[in-house]
Amino acid sequence: MADALSFAETLRRRRSSGESVSFVTLCSENPNSVGLPGVADPRPDYAWKKRRP
């Protein structure tokens, strides 16, 4: 992580000195922030039907 931050800082400095630099940063989601990962189970009172009129 330290290497990645150092590289990003190098790009920022090059850009602030006038060089045209473009870069993309990546971030990851916190899997604990919005409930369980994957598909959640339906509510117990959900009446599943193959075809609905």
TrEMBL record:
What is the protein name for this chain?
Answer: Uncharacterized protein
Chain positions covered by the region annotation Disordered: 33-53
- The domain of life for this entry's organism is Bacteria
Instruction: Spell out the Basic and acidic residues composition-biased ranges.
Output: 42-53
